[in-house]
Sequence to fold (261 residues):
Amino acid sequence: MCFVLCPLYTRSMSRYFQILCALFLSLGSLFPPTAGADQVKVAVAANFTAAMKEIAGGFQKATGHTAVLSFGSTGKLYAQIVNGAPFAVFLAADQKRPKLLVDKGKASGRFTYATGKLVLWSAKPDFVDADGRVLSQGDFNHLAIANPKTAPYGAAAREVLDNLGLSARLTPRLVRGDSIAQTYQFVATGSAELGFVALAQVRLNPKGSRWTPPQELYYPIRQDVVLLARGTDQTAALALLEYLKGPEARSVIEQFGYGID
Fold:
């Protein structure tokens, strides 16, 4: 009995195996291989949060690698990196901290990935006028800015106030966020009637009112990225730097209102 059935069973299983192989091959053509896919830990300046989340999705789709993102003010992220935080890539909101890391031998491959723009924004429609006269003539109690010591966008906001001759008058009304993300929340929730935030944070938000200060009122916010020492031998870290230079990432960066070199 077994002698008769076994050849039939073998032929049946062989045919079944062939069908399975064909099925797996067809699935493989639909889904790109992820062999060698890895994770890269990335420190990202808070102003670049929305843009970087979108870029990370495109990066994973294109390469299979996953970018694990941590957001914060550039100054605080820099301090964490100096103290040994396990990041492989650092996207700052200035050029100063990346250069310091390169000078200390803790990073390499520095380049500018975006140029940020500052905007005075209020969640209230028609509150901020097209010329920014609200700063000198408006009736408000609180003006939000990011901490100038740790956040480049806060330093830029302070430059604008200095160049307009309004620093002394408005300093008592300032509320400072730890990062530009917290500063945005102050304004969005009404804790401050208006504030200086990154254009990228309100670029795709039609609500509220805003004024974009002329570039001559503050030094250009050139944002640099560096490969940190622990990322030197990481395939995913190197791939992310290359992806940031490519057309897909640059398109997202422009979409969010940043300039690109």
Q: What stands out?
A: The chain has two domains: 39-115+222-255, 118-217. The first helix runs from residue 2 to 30. Residues 1-13, 19-35 have pLDDT under 50 and may be disordered. Strands lie at 39-45, 66-72, 89-91, 107-116, 118-122, 143-146, 174-177, 194-198, 209-211, 221-228.
